[in-house]
Design brief:
MetI-like fold; 16 helices; 58% helix; single chain; flat
């Protein structure tokens, strides 16, 4: 190879290397420009995605709320379905092989016997298989309260059931004392246990912004009256006060009205702490230059509050909103557990836990504690998501 060819090759390699380096620099510069041009919410989103525990919690909450939306469809049984034969039945065992052959998912019929203490014993009758099918027809329900349907995601095919035998039920998490499927009732109950706290927190969030904002922005007599009201409400123990107000709900009213009453009670007693935070933020922000400039320019107070003050700490408010939901979940569950919240025929996680008040019942039917796991997962997920949002909203992290 001649010297000229060697020089040409080295020049080509050098130019190729320089082009690669230039492309890397351009990508790095574009990435930096995108970062510095990002809005506050975009920066928060990036930080939140790096918080693995918050991301996992968000996924778990998304799954739980999908269960809220599609609960009646996913549940193999309806809210009023029951079977006396399957009262206090253990979780159904799902099989795939029968007599050495793979036949797909199926369950066996339970034969009920009694021991010498008159306790029920459930034994599988392996003479006949009952396939688990998808998209089966069952009890009627209204999807989102609007569309009437009787289609369920999965269930047992009872077409081969011998005459005179009770229908075979699929009890994924076992049944309660009336023979109602616990898995179905957990899904349907989540529509109350996860919706009441969410709606109550949103209402208290709006009340805190309005009342705390007026108190901090105008001050004077308004501030003094609002702060005294907050002190009076905060001086009462939260749970006993919730219980006292829940006991005042008239007996015999519809489930919908009970739902509305409990939502209002929880929201009216949860706004004071956040209202104080909003007040302190308004006291510090209303003296900023941009707020004073807006006042001198003749901008109305409402516009200053909604366009300048509230957006200045909206990220903090969202974190407070997320961290406030778990307390309401525990409050609603506690009230329903004590019989002061949702009542039969409605259901919630607290109502399902009423059967766990007896130690002997828990010892004989431990699967009735499964709703506790849903409460724990929901509360922890909201707390971890709130922690992730708090870290993402902190400009110094």
């Amino acid at each position: 190879m001649s010297r000229d060819e060697q020089t040409l090759r080295s020049a080509l390699k050098k130019s190729t290397y320089e082009e690669k380096e230039n492309r890397k620099l351009e990508k790095k510069r574009a990435k930096q420009e995108k970062y510095y041009m990002s809005s506050q919410w975009q920066l928060m989103g990036r930080k939140l995605l790096r918080h693995k525990l918050a991301v996992i919690s968000f996924i778990l909450l998304a799954i739980l709320y999908l269960g809220v939306i599609f609960g009646n469809f996913i549940a193999p049984q309806g809210l009023e379905d029951y079977s006396a034969t399957y009262s206090n039945a253990p979780p159904s065992k799902i099989h795939f092989v029968h007599d050495g052959e793979f036949v797909g998912p199926f369950v066996y019929h339970y034969d009920v016997t009694y021991d010498k203490f008159q306790n029920k014993k459930f034994e599988e009758n392996k003479d006949q298989t009952y396939p688990i099918d998808f998209f089966v027809k069952g009890s009627s329900y209204k999807f989102l309260g609007l569309i009437k349907s009787n289609l369920h995601l999965f269930g047992v095919d009872n077409s081969n059931l011998p005459e005179g035998k009770d229908p075979v039920s699929l009890m994924v998490f076992g049944s309660d004392k009336l023979g109602r499927d616990l898995f179905s009732r957990i899904l349907i109950g989540s529509q109350v246990s996860l919706t009441v706290p969410l709606l109550g927190t949103v209402i208290s969030f709006i009340l805190a912004i309005i009342i705390g904002g007026l108190s901090g922005y105008y001050g004077g007599v308004i501030d003094m009256v609002v702060q005294r009201i907050i002190e009076v409400i905060s001086s009462f123990p939260t749970l006993p006060l919730w219980m006292a107000l829940s006991a005042a709900i008239p007996a015999g009213i519809s489930v919908t009205k009970v739902f509305v009453f409990i939502t209002i009670i929880m929201s009216l007693l949860s706004w004071p702490s956040l209202a104080r935070t909003v007040r302190s933020k308004f006291l510090s922000l209303k003296k900023e230059d941009y707020v004073m400039a807006a006042k001198l320019a003749g901008v109305s107070d409402i516009k200053i509050i909604t366009k300048h003050l509230v957006p200045g700490f909206m990220s903090y408010l969202i974190v407070s909103l997320t961290l406030g939901i778990p307390n309401m979940i525990l409050g609603e569950t506690s009230m329903s557990f004590l019989g002061l919240g949702m009542r039969a025929p409605a259901t919630s996680w607290g109502v399902l836990l009423q059967e766990c008040q007896s130690i002997s019942n828990i010892a004989n039917c431990p699967w009735k504690l499964i709703p506790v796991l849903y409460v724990v997962v929901a509360v922890l997920a909201f707390n971890f998501l709130g922690d992730g949002l708090r870290d993402a909203a902190d400009p110094y992290k």
